[in-house]
Amino acid sequence: MSFEKNKKSAVLDFLRPHKTIPITPWRAIHRWDISATRLIVLFGGLLIFGLGDSLLVQSQTGNAPWTVLAQGISKRLDISLGWSTFGISALVLLLWLPLRERPGFGTLANIAIIAASIQLGVNIFPEAPNFVTGIAMDSLGIAMVGIGSALYITCGLGPGPRDGLMTAIHHRSGVRVGRVRLGIEGSVLLLGAALGGQIGVGTALFAIFVGQSIAVALGVVARVTSK
Q1: DSSP states of 41-54 as a string?
Q2: Distance (Å, rounded) from C-alpha 16 to C-alpha 217?
Q3: pLDDT tens-place string over residues 156-172
């Protein structure tokens, strides 16, 4: 009984959320500090992120906020979800210019790989046949987004277009990061829904749990790399 209790305690400790971004062996010195190991971690993280996002799409229970917008635009323009995601990311990056935010290699990789991997996931993952399966796909997708985020964030090669926009507005306006994020995500979600993007239980689950998923994944990365 004591062994089982200790085992459970060890698992919970291993999955304990991390409050900061850990310093990893692959962390870059600057945003264009590219190496083979760093690229593998970065590309792998972005691929996992995009595939996780696509699981929410295929769950048929509601998408992540930015994918709600991408799906709405894809329907209106009759283009693929991947191209729609790519276009939105490129436009968001242009908004960095007046805010004087500087992209890194990871920023550009984020635009290309996440768009491609979302489209890949939509192509290879079947749609959920029922609500229960859809919720299971949401759960796996949110976990994958957390893992993917932790991997690419710890590379230190620059934020994604959306995160960079959030931090740039925060720095220029003085408004709290949480409020800036809420304003951006809320606006994107409403616009996407108006254009025909799917919202639902999956959207709510993503909003509630994705932050915790990223924190848990950062904690796992921190503990694995500290050994």
Answers
A1: HHHHHHHHHHHHHH
A2: 9
A3: 999 899 888 888 887 78
Angstrom distance (rounded) from CA 36 to CA 20: 25
Q: What's the CA gap between 72 and 84, in Å, rounded?
A: 9
CB crowding 158-177: b at 16 or more within 10 Å, else e: bbbbbbbbbbbbbeeeeeee
Query: How far apart (Å, rounded) are the C-alpha atoms in residues 35 and 29?
Result: 11
Classify burial at 125, counting beta carbons within 10 Å of its beta carbon; exposed 0-12, middle 13-18, buried 19 or more: middle
The Cα–Cα gap between 92 and 123 comes to: 25
CA distance 56 to 200: 10
Q: Tell me: the pLDDT tens digits for 87-140? A: 999 999 999 988 888 899 999 999 999 999 999 999 999 999 999 999 999 999
Sign of dihedral through CA atoms 44, 156, 36, 100? positive
3-state secondary structure of 160: coil
Q: Are 166 and 180 in contact (CB under 8 A)?
A: yes
* Local structure of 6: helix, strand or coil: helix
Query: 42 is written with which tokens?
Result: 């970065």
d(CA 220, CA 129): 33
Residue 217: how many other CB atoms lie within 10 Å: 26
Length of the chain: 227
Cβ partners under 8 Å of residue 89, min gap 6 = 110, 111, 114, 115, 160, 161, 162
- Which helix (H) or strand (E) is 196 found in, with range? none
